[in-house]
Design goal:
Structural class: alpha+beta
Number of helices: 6
Oligomer: single chain
Strand content: 35-45%
CATH topology of the largest domain: DNA Polymerase III, Chain A, domain 2
Radius of gyration: 25 Å
Largest sheet: 8 strands, antiparallel
Order of helices and strands: EHEEEEHEEEEHEEEEHEEEEHEEEEHEEE
Shape: elongated
Number of domains: 3
Helix content: 10-25%
Strand order of the largest sheet: 5-2-3-4-16-15-14-9
CATH architecture of the largest domain: Roll
Length: about 375
Amino acid sequence: MKTTIKREDILTPLQQVIGAVERRQTLPILGNVLLKSTGGDLSLTATDLEIEMVARVAADNSDEFQTTIPARKLLDICKALPESAVISFNIEDSRVSLTSARSRFSLASLPAQDFPGLEEIEGQQTIAIPQNTFKALFDKTSFAMAQQDVRYYLNGILMEISADRIKLVATDGHRLALSETDLDTGVTEEKQIIIPRKAVLELSRLLGSDDSPVKCVLSQNHLRVETDALVFTTKLIDGKFPDYQRVIPVDGNKTMEVDRETLKSSMSRIAILSNEKYRGIRLTLTSGNLSIQANNPDQEEAEEELQVDYNESDVEIGFNVTYLIDVLNVLDSKKVQVKLKDSNSSAIISDSEDESSLYVVMPMRL
């Protein structure tokens, strides 16, 4: 059984699905990619039993076959071949031969029938979302996800879908990111799902920057995202996301506006001398002025003052500087708005002119 394909035609789908291949697997076959040829199309499937990616590409002179071969070795070979290379796959028993011009590679294969797949999903809701909108929602919230938290439901993003809106929320218990967009989803009742961290990062990588729609199929335990060339399926986190509305302060009566780039640059400089473990900085707000200070156990200090739009009473508050810079990195506005109540209450950071995203950062004692 044989198939022929251009190097550039197989390289892109391979790079798309490789994210599902763990470097350390419990099952050897999970390190392989499933190649399946039917009717002139070649599909590549990779999975880690939590997520599954299937990419399709047209192949020349293709017989019908299926086999599995080591995914990363195949990717490395394709990368190393010349751009104009044409690759011939020849499948025989437990070996797959790759031939291109004067190069020949023989790879070990494992039976295709042993390749595990996620169970079939029974779609309950189907919605269409522009790719760039979906990607932007992930990019604006994913940094606030927890990593390996014992509260497993925080190791992902809450996706809340109503008839006219999609909202994504992430929190690690110290900060919260929320972004939403108006969209006619067609759903009849509000639905909440928790997308696992790895799936979020992969979707953010795979989604494009154009406005072509992707189809999202939701079931009780799975989310499937389909584009023209890729089908991405992930298991969902089975748990109850905390009531994020209770975390968002509603009584912040002190508002500061400042140029985003100026604030970000200042905080990046001050952070150099912050405590390496706790990353704390002190913000002191007086009329028209913001003082940013940091010190560390070596008795080193840094301080910088900025002119800001602020006319309320004086306030002094401490924050983890990394959390603040993370927020400033995902906002793309000229000015940011910070709402505070006092030194013991969380702050809300948002775009001065766009209320579709907001960020809550808890204070820290210094």
